[in-house]
Amino acid sequence: MVEGSMTQGAGQGPEVRTATLRDFRVPAYVHDVPANVQEPGHDPAPPAPAVPPQAEPDPAYQEPSLSQPSYAEPAHQDPAFDQPDGYTPTQRDLPVINRGDTVQVQIDTEPAPRPTDGLGPLYVVGDVHGYLDELIAALYEQGLIDAEGSWSAGTARLWFLGDFTDRGPDGIGVIDLVMRLSAEAAAAGGYCKALMGNHELLLLGAKRFGDTPVNSGAGTATFQAAWLLNGGQKSDMDRLQDVHLQWMSRLDAIELEDDHLLMHSDTTAYLDYGDSIEAVNDTVRETLTRNDADECWDLFRKFTKRFAFRDESGPEAVRELLDAYGGTRVVHGHSPIPYLLGEVGTEDAADGSEDSRPQIEGPHVYAGGLAIAMDGGVTMAGKLLVQQLPMDS
Fold it and tell me: DSSP characters for 330-364?
C-alpha cells in the first residue's frame, strides 16, 4: 500500500444561527490523549467493501423542527449550556465501531473502464463523517477504486467536499484513505483532492486549543466541548498524528473545477475571507497558521452556517458567489439533503426499516438549478454520495 501523501492540489437567505456554547464541562478522558496508536496509511485495505452497522440513536436526541431551519438541543443537555453559533448538535457519546466489528459485503459488479490518458472525468464526494466502509463501497461502485481499495480510475479527478471525521466510527481511517488515494491517483495521471470542512476546523481546534476559552460573542466556549457535543470520537483523537494535522491545515476552502464552484458549506460566509478563490484559500490557511484560538473559532463558526441557497433568495445568494469566484453552479456538502427537503430522519432511522430511512438516491439540485447538494445524510442512515459531474439536470 502506498504511504499516505500530504500532497494537496490547487488545492443567502437568512443564515441560521443558534445560541453559543457556555461553560461546557469536558469529560476527563479527553484531557488524557494516548500516544500515537498507529501509523497513517498502514491499515490493510479490506478485500471487499464493508458496511458498518448503524449506531443506535440517542433516545434523548431531538431532531430539528421542519418548520424552522435550526436544530434542537439534545434533551439531556444542561440548559446552561448553549450551542456554538449556527452549529448542528448531534448525539453525545456515539459508540465507536471497530473495523473488525463490521459486516463484510461482497460487491459483484466490476468497475467500469476509465480513460488511460488525457483529462479524466470529474467526481465529487459528499460528507463522509467517519463512515469508511460506506465510502469504500461508494468509490468501488463508481469504479474509482478496485476490490483492494486501490486507485483504479486512471486519469479521473476526484474531489472530496470536506467533513471526514466525527459522528462516524473511523474518521482517521477516512483521512488515511484519502491521503493514500491522492498519491496513487497522481501516479496514474489523475488526482484526488479535498476541501476544508467545518469538522476539520473543529478537530484541529480541539487538538490545538483543547478547553482554552474562546470569545464566542455570547459567553465562554471551547473547541473541545464543541467537538464532543458534535460527534467527536475519542478513537479519532487517540489516533490523530502530526501528519493528519498538517494535511488538514493545508486544505483549500473553495475551488473551481470544470465551471463548478466547489465548497463545503452552503453559506456566503466565504465572501468574508476574500474576493477571489486564491485570496479565500490564503486567508484561511494564514488564519490557521497564526494559531489564534479566537480567530480559529470565528472561522469555524462561519463555516457552520447553512441554508443560504434554500429559500426564495437562494438563487441570488448563489449568484453572489459565482460572480465573485466564477463558475455556473455551486456544489456543496454540509447540509444533509433530508434537511434541505424537509424529510428529516427520525430516531427510528437506523432501525433497519426502509420506510423509516431518508430516501436519498442522489444529489439534490435546487436554487433554480444553480446549486447541487452532495451530503446524502450518511449519519442518519441516508446515503454517502459520489457523483460524476456535470449532471444532466
Answer: EEE-SS-HHHHTT----TTTTSS-GGGS----S-E
End-to-end CA distance of the chain: 38
Question: What are the tens digits of pLDDT across the range 76-99?
Answer: 333 333 444 544 444 333 333 333
Chunked mean pLDDT (size 10), the chain, 393 residues: 41 40 35 40 45 39 34 34 46 37 39 58 98 98 97 98 98 98 97 98 98 84 96 98 97 98 98 98 97 96 97 97 98 96 58 61 96 96 95 78
- With beta carbons less than 8 A apart as the criterion, state whether 237 and 30 touch: yes
**pLDDT score recorded for residue 393:** 63
**For residues 198 and 206, what is the distance between their CA atoms, to the nearest angstrom?**
12
The reported pLDDT for the residue numbered 253 is: 98
Which helix (H) or strand (E) is 241 found in, with range? none
User: In whole angstroms, what is the distance from residue 331 CA to residue 386 CA?
Assistant: 12
Which residues is 371 bridged to in the sheet?
330, 366
| Strand partners for 389 | 122
- In the chain, % helix, strand, coil (3-state, to 5) comes to 30, 10, 60
Annotate 76-99 with b (16+ C-beta within 10 A) or e (fewer): ebeeebbbbbbbbbbbbebebbee
Q: HSE on the CB side for 90, CA within 13 Å? A: 24
Instruction: Report yes or no: 305 and 69 within 8 Å, Cβ to Cβ.
Output: no
Number of Cα atoms under 13 Å in the Cβ half of residue 252: 21
Residue 145 and residue 161 in contact, taking contact as beta carbons nearer than 8 Å: no
Q: Do residues 362 and 384 touch, judged by C-beta distance below 8 A?
A: no
DSSP string, 282-313: HHHHHHHHHT-HHHHHHHHHHHT---TTTSTT
Q: How large is the angle between the packed helices 242-249 and 198-209, nearest 10 degrees?
A: 130
Q: Which residues pair with 214 in a beta bridge?
A: 221
Beta strands 122-125 and 364-366 are: unpaired
Give the pLDDT score at 291: 92
CB-based contacts of 75, cutoff 8 Å, min separation 6: 60, 61, 62
